């Protein structure tokens, strides 16, 4: 009886965690105003890129840009800590190359449970150098990573929104190193 209750409690906890993560992801992608009610300004100039900026492009601050293989560029726009003990990293993956490209399966990492669910950003990690800990992308009870999955072929100049959810480092940790296989590493600040 105790084993059944424990299993049910775990499933409920995971379901709540997934719901919170999806809610945070949806709110993070809404492009809302800053705390003072004014729209946040962009950290980079979007003119001269050869493509029209999206409506949300002017409201997102860039924390880091990391280059990957085949002309892919990952722009990280937020790393938000929530009260549930998670950090959601959001941004966009852009094809800066001249040809359409698929995201390499290597970005999924090499864990069997993650790889069997297809291409994802499941290989991403956050490294807390001060705390000497590495945080991996969270998984649901079936081993699916809580991140963008089944990414389409990306046309030249096009981009897709992406997210990854991690366990939260301690509240005292404000900066971590973001790592994703086949991409350069970058230091990002956690807000919230």
Task: Tag the structure with descriptive keywords.
Secreted protein; alpha+beta; 2 helices; 26% strand; 192 residues; four-stranded antiparallel β-sheet; globular; 16% helix; Immunoglobulin-like
What does this structure look like?
The chain has a four-stranded antiparallel beta sheet with strand order 1-2-3-6, with helices on one face. A four-stranded antiparallel beta sheet has the order 5-4-7-8, with no helix packed on it. It has helices at residues 2-28, 112-115, and strands spanning 64-67, 72-81, 86-95, 125-128, 133-136, 159-167, 175-179, 186-189. The longest helix has 27 residues, at 2-28. Helix content is 16%, strand content 26%. The radius of gyration is 17 Å and the shape is globular. A hairpin with a 4-residue loop joins β1 (64-67) and β2 (72-81). With 192 residues, it is an alpha+beta fold. The chain has two helices and eight strands, in the order αβββαβββββ. It has a single domain (2-30, 60-189), classed as Immunoglobulin-like, CATH 2.60.40. Residues 29-59 are annotated as: Disordered. Residues 1-26 form the signal peptide. Residues 41-55 have a biased composition (Low complexity). Keywords: Signal. This is Secreted protein.
